[in-house]
Design a protein that fits this description.
Layout lengths: L7 H13 L2 H16 L8 E10 L10 E3 L4 E11 L4 E8 L4 H15 L5 E4 L6 H10 L2 E4 L15 H13 L11 H21 L7
GO molecular function: DNA binding; transposase activity
InterPro entries: Transposase_11
Protein name: Transposase IS4-like domain-containing protein
Amino acid sequence: MPVDFPPWDRVYAFFRRWRDHALVREFHDRLRPKVREELGRDAEPSAGVIDSQSVKADAVVGADSRGFDGGKLVNGRKRHVVVDTLGLLLGVMVTAADTGDRAAAQVLLRQVADVHHQLELVWADGGYTGGLVEYCLATFALVLAIVKRSDDMRGFVVLPKRWIVERFFAHLMRTRRLARDYERRTTSAEAMVCWSMTLLMTRRLARPGPGRG
């Protein structure tokens, strides 16, 4: 804790109050339209990208909200996110790492579609194939476009539109608190993701001149 801050328990009391009253998310959501408009975009997005990131959990994370991701070989939690085409966060949900991407996406996309009414298209990777595509179109009037690797691709390849969300995850990992999951509650973990993006957006808005963003 910085030396000019109050004792940690007092700081955490403020964070807990802001988290429980959804103020952390409100701070974040008020900044995103401003950043988009600064870059010449509409305040509300019409397209986005969905993906998930499995991260190791600290010992304080209980067994009720942690699991093992067999694909990534990670024991911990999974961050499911939807970002716009600028890489700005539209929605986040934290679950145990063994939660399937398609199951989480049904919940997260409903939350995002309820708030962002102009959203029409979301890109996703092959992990979101199956009935989810038809479900999104029928339930949310949302086109879920699957971006797949071609058969001749070898090694690590960042697919079109997929680099947007990969850059988002890279930013999260630069935030030391998010390098692994240290939060007892998933709501705290979600608030930390919003807080990290709030710091990013305030820095972008504070930049002088045409190079901002």
